[in-house]
Amino acid sequence: MSELSGSGGKKKEIRQQMLLQWIENSHYVSLEEIAERFRVTTQTARRDIADLEHQGKVRRLHGGVSQLAPLDPITYRQRRHDRADEKARIAEAVVALIPDNATIFLDTGTTCEAIANALVSRERLHVVTYSLRSAAIISEKTDFTLAVPGGFVRPIDGGMFQEDTPEFIRRFKFDYAIISVSGVDDDGDLCDDDHTEVAVV
């Protein structure tokens, strides 16, 4: 694809169109894959990603890019109420395993929000989360230490992300990590439909 490696307007436009189609088909593409496929530098690949993100067509991630696949706000609000009793029981079971003074990573999602509500029964926890909703719950507990990354807030579920979110989280040593997933496949592997969160956790 050397004919698409230039920075000229037409070549750039064609390359970005092909990149967008590739992202839509693959859902996630790494920076290195883009550079290799189109025979461009990683700087050019980053500029292409930035252009597409500015147009509102993709979501830039640490080390790559994913398609935009926002949840329906009504769907997410409904998920909060769906199986609320089961989520509360999960939260109670999880919190029963966590002692006071523990350092915890808490993921996003409606079940994790239920866990955040249950965590306030503990004392002097140190919590790291990129869930704005869970952070708001936990921040009410004055003896807790709360750390959140900066960045942009995903309006649907209140997840906060930026390019260096994984590095921010890696600064901490956790006693417990509470991870939410979208499902479990036939082999028992955990699955998530959001590559942003996969890159973080």
From TrEMBL:
<dbReference type="GO" id="GO:0003700">
    <property type="term" value="F:DNA-binding transcription factor activity"/>
</dbReference>
<dbReference type="InterPro" id="IPR036388">
    <property type="entry name" value="WH-like_DNA-bd_sf"/>
</dbReference>
<dbReference type="InterPro" id="IPR001034">
    <property type="entry name" value="DeoR_HTH"/>
</dbReference>
<keyword id="KW-0805">Transcription regulation</keyword>
<dbReference type="InterPro" id="IPR014036">
    <property type="entry name" value="DeoR-like_C"/>
</dbReference>
<dbReference type="InterPro" id="IPR050313">
    <property type="entry name" value="Carb_Metab_HTH_regulators"/>
</dbReference>
<feature type="domain" description="HTH deoR-type">
    <location>
        <begin position="12"/>
        <end position="67"/>
    </location>
</feature>
<keyword id="KW-0678">Repressor</keyword>
<keyword id="KW-0804">Transcription</keyword>
<dbReference type="GO" id="GO:0003677">
    <property type="term" value="F:DNA binding"/>
</dbReference>
<dbReference type="InterPro" id="IPR037171">
    <property type="entry name" value="NagB/RpiA_transferase-like"/>
</dbReference>
<keyword id="KW-0238">DNA-binding</keyword>
<dbReference type="InterPro" id="IPR018356">
    <property type="entry name" value="Tscrpt_reg_HTH_DeoR_CS"/>
</dbReference>
<dbReference type="Pfam" id="PF08220">
    <property type="entry name" value="HTH_DeoR"/>
</dbReference>
<dbReference type="Pfam" id="PF00455">
    <property type="entry name" value="DeoRC"/>
</dbReference>
<protein>
    <submittedName>
        <fullName>Glycerol-3-phosphate transcriptional regulator protein</fullName>
    </submittedName>
</protein>
<dbReference type="InterPro" id="IPR036390">
    <property type="entry name" value="WH_DNA-bd_sf"/>
</dbReference>
